Structure formats: C-alpha cells, structure tokens
Amino acid sequence: MLKEIFANQLLLGCPQAAVATLVALAVMLLARLREIHLERETVVALVRGIVQITAIGSILVALLRGPSWTSIILLGGMIAAAAKMSAGRSKGLPRSFQVSLWSIASGAGSVIALMTWAGVIDTRITSLVPIGSMLIANAMNTNSLVLNRFRSEVESHVGLIETGLALGADSRQTVTSYVQVSVQSSLIPAIDSLRSLGIVWIPGLMAGMLLSGARPIYAAIYQFVTISMIFSSSGLTALICSLLIRSSVFSPAEQLVLRPPQVSAPNVRSGG
Amino acid sequence: MTVDVRKGEVLVIVGPSGAGKSSFLRLLNRLDEPTGGTVRFEGRDYKEIPPPELRRRVGMVTQTAFLFPGTIADNLRFGPLQQGIELAAEPIEALLSQVGLGGRAGEGVAHLSGGEAQRVSLARALATKPAVLLLDEPTSALDADAKDEVERLILTVVRRNDLTCVMVSHDLAQAARVADQVMVMNKGRLAKIGKVSEVINAEGNLR
Question: Which residue from A182, A192, A191, A135 is spatially nearest to A155, judged by alpha carbons?
C-alpha cells in the first residue's frame, strides 16, 4: 500500500519506519496492560535504534568506498560498543566491561579473522563489515546472557557458595555448576537458529543475495555458513566469558564479592 | 578489640541484633576481609595461610544448613575431597554416629528435618578435621526440641574432639550452658569479655 503512494525509496522508508514503530509501541502497551513495564526501555531502544542505524548507514556509504583496512577500525569500534552494552546488562558484576571486551573480541574476533583468512568471508569491506557485525552482535547477545544468568545464579546461591568456600574449596570450583548452566542457556538461541534454518526462518542475508543475483543454492549454503559462524563466535565468546567471570566474583583472598542487592547473605542475615 | 581464644575453649559471643557478632565470626575464617588489625591462628598471622587451607582448619556451621544436593555421604565427602582425600564409608559412618545419624549415609538430603540437616552440617564441618569450629547461631532456626538436642550434640562433639569453638548466640541462657568465656558485643565493639560468672548473673542477665 505504501509503495503505491511513495515512489521514492527515501520517502517510502519514513512511513515504513513509522508503521514498524507503531506496532512495537502497541506491543509495549499490551505489556503495560499486563503490568509489565517496558515503556522507558522500549522508547529509548526504538529512538536509539533508528538514530544509530541511520547514522551508521550514512557513514557506511562513505566508508564502504574506502580501503579494506578501514573495516578493521569499524569492527574494532563495534566490538568496543558491544562490550559496553553487554556490560550494562550485568550491573553489579565486577569487571563486567573488561570481561565482555575480552570475550567478544576473542570470540567474535578470532572467528572473523579465521574465516577471512580461509576465504569464507570476502575481504571487501562491503562483505567483511556486515558479516562481521552479525557475528559481533550475536556474540554480544550471548555474552549478555551468560553474564546475566551467572549473576542471578550466584545471587541465588550465596549460601551454598560460601559453604563450599568455608569447607576449603577452591573459589572457582564453587561456581562451576552455575557457570555451566549460564553457558548452556546462553547458547540456546544460537543452537535454535542453526536447527531451524530454512524451516522456521530464512534470514535477510540470503534474501539479499538472491535479490542481488546470486544462485539460490549458493545463497542457501552461504546462509548456513553464516549461521555456523554465528554459532562458533557465540560459543567461543560464551566459553571465554565463562573462564573470566568465575574469578571476577571473588576477591584475591577467595571471598565472594557479589551480593544480591539489598539482601545480605543467608548465613549472615540474622544474629549479629 | 583484642580477643584471645585458647585451645579447647568455647567462646560464646552475645549481643543485640546488628551488634556485629556474625560479621566478627566471618572474619575468623576469612569469608570477609578485616579492614584493620590482625587475626592470629596458632600464633601465625592468618593472612600468611592460603584461605582454602585456613578454612579447612577452621570449620563453620551456619544458622541455616546449606546442604549440597545429593546424599548425606556426598556432603561429608566434599571437604576432604578439596584436599584430594576420598573419604571411605567407615569414617563417614563414624562421623554420622557422632551426630546421631548412623546408618543414614546413603540418604538424600532433600527431605531432612531442620535438626537433621544441622547435624549433617556439623558432621560435614568435622570431616575436614578442623582445629577450630565456628558456629553462627546453629540452633536458632530449630524448634525447641531440636534446639536442645543439637546444642547438647555440639557440646559433646566439641569436648570429645578437643575443638576450639567460637559460637554466636542471641540466647544468654545458652551462652551460660555452653561457654567457657562469654564476649558481649554492641554496635560493632567489644563491650565485655570474661568467664560466664563474670558476664552473666545468676538470673541469666548480663551483669
């Protein structure tokens, strides 16, 4: 319907964005009716999303015409931004920015480097940046899920963890099972994407390749390649994150430093 | 504050809620870090001892018995396993007999009563053969019958194993029953310390 009214692509984009925003706001209002308050976060996320993607789109137009090495700067910037956002999701967790930066940089960065070296990802900036950004974004989501789940697992098991410490256990060992649960649950989206590929969803990259004239079978195979790479970078990020977070919640004297907000540890709650 | 606890002695810390009794206890096995001062264990600054090693020598029983999922025996094996020792069935049975749970090693911990769970917690602390036992209101979450039983049991176990014991209690009568020395804390400070007769009068009130 909108296409019939707006002939120009740029003019068409604005009402399309408006319709998509209205639907998102309607969902937010529905949630509000159920007493689930997402108003502030949703509005901020929508505004940030449109501003960021438009700004980056405009910058990309200029950068995509530049030399290949600029893609390294772009991807580096994306990793830093991803680490900052992921760390923001895990407030209260000590050193969460450093943990996120190392995890995403090594997880997504190494997969991007390896795949580019192997020729799976084209070195052209128009290929490297979009595919790299997909890997970084998914690594960020996985990292956030690991941090978030780990924090809540530790906060709910302070008593058991300190009991382990009091019995002379190595601090990292007392949280091993919580680290495992966090990593496993964080990888559910990546595994599900791989499992449901082609049945539940056909991602945009494949559609884009088809539109730009690629052979359908190659477009399909390359979509599988991309989702596999996403799984690898997410998995690697989760594993590295799991190695780093287990020591981040303890002091050098092996004392648990992460506490539930407003609530003392169960074994110190009453009494003195 | 300066506090000296001798080998085999039972020190009971009493005081109102928020006095800092539990916080003080947590400093003794270094679950929390002292902001100043020195804690000496067997004459040695305890910061020279790696925390896991210190904690194996200084056992702790908390108000709530946090038992690991699994069997009673699994819980007793946990501490020694940290030192690379696989506890055999015989010493497990001996420990359980000490706390009145003989023959129940293979039982799961999920359905234990509060008193039974606290007994397992005590046996688990003893399994690492500690020299010191820290007890943070070990009977306050139990009903009256279980409370008396566990208190008697603790006293027997402490005397039999010649353990040095520091216990937090909010119950002056309990302090009078079990203590060699009583320490009164108030607002994070040491208010008084001495023998039971010096701190608690015949009516069971603070002197």
Answer: A182
Q: What single-letter amino acid sits at B182?
A: V
**CATH code, domain with B156:** 3.40.50.300
What is the phi-psi region of residue A262: left when phi exceeds 0, alpha when psi lies from -120 to 50, beta otherwise?
A: left
More confident position, B136 or A66:
B136
Residues of B in contact with A258 (CB under 8 A): none
Strand, coil or helix: what is A54? helix
Amino acid in the structure at residue A123: T
Confidence of residue A265 (pLDDT cuts 50, 70, 90): very low
Tell me how close the Cα of A240 comes to any Cα of chain B, in angstroms.
25
Q: Are A184 and A192 in contact (CB under 8 A)?
A: no
Domain assignment of residue B49, yes or no: yes
> What is the spatial distance between Cα A243 and Cα A248, in angstroms, rounded to a whole number?
9
Predicted local distance difference test score (pLDDT) of residue A75: 92
Residues of A in contact with B136 (CB under 8 A): 267-268, 271
What's the rounded mean pLDDT across residues A44-53?
A: 88
Is the whole-model pTM more than 0.90? no
Query: Which residues span the domain enclosing B52?
Result: 10-199
Query: Measured between beta carbons, which residues in chain A are less than 8 angstroms from residue B129?
Result: none
Confidence of residue B140 (pLDDT cuts 50, 70, 90): confident
Of the candidates A167, A173, A271, the beta carbon closest to that of B170 is on A271
Instruction: Report the alpha-carbon angle B111-B116-B119, nearest 5.
Output: 140
Q: What is the pLDDT of residues A119-143, one digit of tens each?
A: 888 888 888 888 999 999 999 999 9
CA distance B72 to chain A (A): 15
What are the counts of helices (DSSP H) followed by strands (DSSP E) for chain B?
8, 8
pLDDT score, position B47? 92
Q: Which B-chain residues 12-31 have CB contacts (< 8 A) with chain A?
A: 13, 15, 17-26, 29-31
Amino acid, res. B24: F
Contact status of B64 with chain A (Cβ, < 8 Å): yes
- Note the ipTM here: 0.90
Q: Is residue B135 a part of any domain in this protein?
A: yes
Chain A residues within 8 A (CB-CB) of chain B?
Answer: 159-160, 162-170, 173, 251, 253-256, 266-272
* Integer angstrom CA distances of residue A3 from A6, A14, A100, A207: 5, 12, 42, 19
Classify strands B58-61 and B132-136 as parallel, antiparallel or unpaired. Answer: parallel
Residue B204 lies in a domain: no
Q: How many domains does chain B have?
A: 1
Which of B25, B82, B140 is closest, CB to CB, to A167? B82
Helix axes A125-156, A158-166, angle to 10 degrees: 80
Structure tokens at A166: 């009091």
